């Protein structure tokens, strides 16, 4: 019989090994939270706004005082600051180039007067390249959308304490072959057909390129010596939480740290001291996915208290609380394990997309979507095709919704997008993504790309490098990318942990031929598993539906056709999930906007819900299936079984 003490020691050694690797992520991008030592001021509301319509789109930078000239910034905008769908001007809706945001902010006088306070300006996301000034002083710039960036601005404010705080943000949504996602600008020079200087932005993805500031802009404070970053690695077997706290500031070497873990009732369950350590929770309550356990999404609160002596001998303090879920993820050749139990992804792909707000964060919409996912019986989703707002991941943590966290690496289709500049940027993006989301228990896998041209010769080394980099940043989670390439020629597949395959049988291939789905889908699975011996997720499948269009026999774009496509796929899923298929994610949760084109009638209509979140017939089909799968274990309490007994297809 194994010695319990040696068994515990082995667990702790392995945990420390993972924790040491994860500690390499130390740049710091903690989600802003208020505490006794930290304050937040949201900068929501109306901003002055103007698009630079000059021929070279560069007038704002060429003016003598381009940053703070009010004539440049004259159109009111609102939070979120996405301009495309709030305008009546078609030129602005499809605008490509620089836009400018500007507003004056009242900063509490004590923030400026107290030199022990850091004042930080944070932008949750701006698409794509951003430059930020405070009172005419450039404080930061950032390449890439969908991820936060920030700058410490206390020094600028204290340079002239009597001046108002004026924040100016310039954002350029131009996509090139080296951006993520990639795109290219095409100039059309035929003077008989196009005006002088006419150009179009080509993209390689199927969603609207919403631009501007996507998420909240805010100011927050910390002490001058502060908690800069926290990394946690948990182990379900013995309830251990290894933590690493990075401290920044002039007095960081003299700081003392106390870490306290409390449960949902505020009771202390473990304590530790020092910047690194292990919290051991006796009889720990684990974090479980929705519908996998009667108590999903359980979170502890880990409070880090930093103390340091001030110049006058006083004690200066910083406090930060991080929600922590105890769980472990593992992949075998046929299974995806959460806390050593098989997990089957029955979920959706989503988009941050809605009427008028576009990709802008909207709390009522987020709550509605979570209610719909739980009504549906969905236990998971992929953040297709970019990182979502951090608040959404916090919701997933609390509700037990499992997340495949995807980078904005969608549409890498041109061989020139596999060059060194693209690779360097992709590595930076994965670093920012892992740094931001590494502590979310709901995030169980990283996806580095969607539908790249992975059959091209450079793709092998490119994705080997990106995947290895991501695993080095976080060895506790599997890494994948989503493919629609030929199984035998996919050069990145050898490096992923889970095969994620997109296919639209009887839609893009053999349109209208429902009878081929079973044979072709069986062949798809057998080929992929036969070559790679890795578990498989059907990461996209579906059919467009015009809401209210009916046809019997079913024809494409009718509600009946979508139902038949789903049922045909599901028959094969039920055979293969007994072997090596570990998940199915419908495309898509809801209809969403795309660029205009002859194949899209006001957007993509593959949603099982409309863009306004009303169910199509396919939603009821999927709901019946997902609740049946969830109840197969027989472990769910009566309140979760109840919806299944009330299901009726329309």
TrEMBL record:
**Locations listed in the record:** Lysosome
Q: What is its main location?
A: other
Q: Show where the Glycosyl hydrolases family 2 sugar binding domain sits.
A: 40-223
- Which InterPro entries does the entry link to? Beta-gal/glucu_dom_sf (IPR036156), Galactose-bd-like_sf (IPR008979), GH (IPR017853), Glyco_hydro_2 (IPR006101), Glyco_hydro_2_AS (IPR023232), Glyco_hydro_2_cat (IPR006103), Glyco_hydro_2_CS (IPR023230), Glyco_hydro_2_N (IPR006104)
Q: Which Pfam families match?
A: Glyco_hydro_2_C (PF02836), Glyco_hydro_2_N (PF02837)
Query: What are this entry's molecular-function GO terms?
Result: beta-glucuronidase activity; carbohydrate binding
Could you list this entry's UniProt keywords, alphabetically sorted.
Glycosidase, Hydrolase, Lysosome, Signal
Q: Which Gene3D superfamilies match?
A: Galactose-binding domain-like, Glycosidases, Immunoglobulins
Asked if Flavoprotein is a keyword of the record, the answer is no
The signal peptide, as residue positions, is 1-24
**One BP term from GO:** glucuronoside catabolic process
What is the similarity comment for this entry?
Belongs to the glycosyl hydrolase 2 family.
Name by which UniProt lists this protein: Glucuronidase, beta
Question: What is the organism of origin for this protein?
Answer: Gadus morhua (Atlantic cod)
The uppermost taxa in this organism's lineage are: Eukaryota, Metazoa, Chordata, Craniata, Vertebrata
């Amino acid at each position: 019989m194994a010695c319990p003490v040696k068994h515990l020691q082995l667990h702790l050694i392995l945990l420390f090994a993972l924790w040491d690797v994860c500690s390499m992520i130390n740049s710091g991008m903690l989600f802003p939270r208020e505490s006794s030592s930290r304050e937040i001021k949201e900068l929501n509301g109306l901003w002055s706004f103007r698009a630079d319509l000059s021929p070279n789109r560069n007038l704002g930078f060429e003016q003598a005082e381009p940053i703070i000239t009010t004539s440049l910034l004259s159109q009111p905008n609102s939070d979120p600051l996405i301009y495309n769908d709030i305008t009546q001007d078609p030129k602005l809706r499809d605008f490509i180039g620089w836009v400018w945001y500007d507003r004056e902010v009242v900063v509490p006088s004590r923030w400026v007067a107290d030199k022990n306070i850091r004042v930080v300006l944070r932008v949750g996301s701006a698409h794509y390249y951003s430059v930020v000034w405070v009172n005419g002083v450039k404080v930061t710039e950032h390449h890439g959308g969908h991820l936060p960036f920030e700058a410490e601005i206390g020094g600028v404010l204290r340079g002239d304490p009597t001046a108002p705080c004026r924040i100016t943000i310039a954002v350029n949504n131009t996509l090139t072959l080296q951006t993520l996602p990639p795109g290219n600008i095409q100039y059309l020079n035929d003077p008989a057909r196009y005006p002088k200087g006419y150009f179009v932005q080509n993209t390689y993805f199927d969603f609207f390129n919403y631009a501007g500031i996507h998420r909240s802009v805010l100011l927050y404070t910390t002490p001058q010596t502060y908690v800069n970053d926290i990394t946690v690695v948990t182990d379900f077997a013995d309830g251990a939480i290894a933590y690493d706290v990075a401290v920044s500031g002039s007095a960081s070497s003299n700081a003392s740290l106390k870490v306290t873990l409390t449960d949902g009732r505020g009771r202390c369950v473990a304590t530790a001291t020092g910047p690194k350590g292990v919290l051991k929770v006796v009889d720990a309550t684990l974090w479980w996915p929705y519908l996998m356990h009667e108590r999903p999404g359980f979170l502890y609160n880990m409070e880090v208290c930093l103390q340091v002596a001030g110049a006058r001998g006083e004690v200066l303090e910083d406090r930060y609380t991080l929600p922590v879920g105890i769980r472990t993820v593992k992949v075998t050749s046929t299974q995806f394990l959460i806390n050593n139990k098989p997990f089957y992804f029955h979920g959706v792909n989503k988009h941050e997309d809605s009427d008028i707000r576009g990709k802008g964060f909207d709390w009522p919409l987020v709550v509605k979507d979570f209610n719909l996912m739980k009504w549906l019986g969905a236990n998971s989703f992929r953040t297709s095709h970019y990182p979502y707002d951090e608040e959404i991941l916090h919701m997933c943590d609390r509700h037990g919704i499992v997340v495949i966290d995807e980078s904005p690496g969608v549409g890498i289709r041109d061989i020139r997008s596999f060059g060194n500049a693209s690779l360097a940027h992709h590595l930076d993006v994965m670093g920012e993504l892992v740094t931001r989301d590494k502590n979310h228990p709901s995030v169980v896998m990283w996806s580095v790309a969607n539908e790249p041209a992975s059959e091209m010769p450079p793709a092998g080394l490119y994705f080997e490098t990106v995947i290895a980099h991501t695993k080095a940043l976080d060895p506790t989670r599997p890494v994948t990318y989503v493919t629609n390439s030929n199984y035998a020629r996919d050069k990145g597949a050898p490096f992923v942990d889970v095969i994620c395959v997109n296919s639209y049988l009887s839609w893009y291939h053999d349109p209208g031929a429902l009878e081929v789905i079973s044979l072709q889908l069986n062949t798809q699975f057998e080929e992929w598993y036969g070559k790679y011996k890795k578990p498989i997720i059907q990461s996209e499948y579906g059919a467009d539906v015009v809401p209210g269009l009916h046809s019997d026999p079913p024809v494409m774009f009718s509600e009946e056709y979508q139902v038949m496509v789903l049922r045909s796929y599901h028959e094969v899923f039920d055979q293969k999930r007994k072997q090596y298929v570990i998940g199915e994610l419908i495309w898509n949760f809801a209809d969403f906007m795309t660029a205009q084109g002859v194949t899209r009638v006001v957007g993509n209509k593959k949603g099982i819900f409309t863009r306004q979140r009303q169910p199509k017939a396919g939603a009821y089909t999927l709901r019946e299936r997902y609740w049946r799968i969830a109840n197969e274990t027989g472990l769910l309490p009566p309140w979760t079984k109840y919806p299944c007994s009330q299901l009726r297809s329309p």
